[in-house]
Amino acid sequence: MSCPDRFTLFLALEEGxxxxxxxxACCERCRRxxxxxxxxxxxxxxxxxxxxxxxxxxGVWQRIDQTVGLQARLLRQTMVAALxxxxxxxxxxxxxxxxxxxxxxxxxxxxxxxxxxAAGALGNALGDRLAGLAAPMLAAQALALILSALMLHRLLxxxxxxx
Amino acid sequence: MVAFSLDPxxxxxxxxxxxxxxxxxxxxAQAAAGGDxxxxxxxxxxxxxxxxxxxxxxxxxxxxxxxxxxxxFARAFAALGSYDPGQRFDVWVLRIARNLCYDQLRxxxxxxxxxxxxxxxxxxxxxxxxxxxxQAQAIxxxxxxxxxxxxxxxxILALYYVQRRTTRDIAEIVGTAPGTIMARLFRARxxxxxxxxxxx
Lengths: 163, 200
Hints:
The complex is a heterodimer. Chain A is mainly alpha-helical. Chain A has six helices and no strands. The relative contact order of chain A is 0.06. By secondary structure, chain B is mainly α. Chain B has two domains: about 10-110, Orthogonal Bundle (Rna Polymerase Sigma Factor, Chain: A), CATH 1.10.1740.10; about 115-200, Arc Repressor Mutant, subunit A, CATH 1.10.10.10. Chain B has helices spanning about 5-15, 20, 25-35, 35-60, 60-80, 90-110, 115-120, 130-150, 150-160, 165-175, 180-200. Chains A and B meet through helix 1, helix 3 and helix 4 of A and helix 4, helix 5, helix 7, helix 8 and helix 9 of B.
């Protein structure tokens, strides 16, 4: 082996190359360079990281809980804002375009009823595998009908009072 | 009724076969992702030394490193859903820590000096007083030269020599090809050698 450049020598040292070891035995110059490299490596290996602070774990959980709390608060605020916007827009629609609202509500009611009936029929037609869905679907259908009827009743009552 | 504890048996089993006594990190991460706080606490306990160490080497002071390490684990917790169990958990967390520290350094626009207290803890207490003082001085000189290096050189030296990571792990943490690590290490060492020579 001829004298390697410093990088090759460093790589060979890290790999523990026997070829390099044989070369170092008969080359004073490379032996000196290898010794320098080895000493630097040993010195670096003596370095230690400081121990983490004892309250690190506590700080981690505080941050996590803060983030989770913030997310929950944001979600709540978003839901409240969305509900308020929905109620406001519904109120405005009912105030200014009550006929349109009533017509739309009736259409929606009819559509929902038809959709639920179709879904229930489909569920029954699919047989035993989906039989379990039939009862919840019928219950949902009944609930939707009751809610729609209540909404319609309130809308009509409101429009009567205003007019 | 006689109470029967499995603890001694578990201790012996753990000593002989660590995997029996300790859940592996992938299983812990999976449990933590499902809301198991104890599992995540265990993961933090296992990795905090390495994460804090890297943060310290990059940020350069204890408070900043502690802050970065805490934020690293908080982010890791939030991102557990995207953690690939095929990957080493500590490598994954160290990558988060590294990116976070670089963000902090970029925001601050400077690299603060390293505390000197780390050097004291590293001194080997077995040799004579004189040898210990010499060793302490050598380590202080080395730490002082290290702090003058750019973060990219500091991190590679810290991961390879202080944390004894493989080049493959380091490549994953710093997001580069494994083949480039030894060249980066060589360059960092060359710079360090120059700084040490200047100081001498």
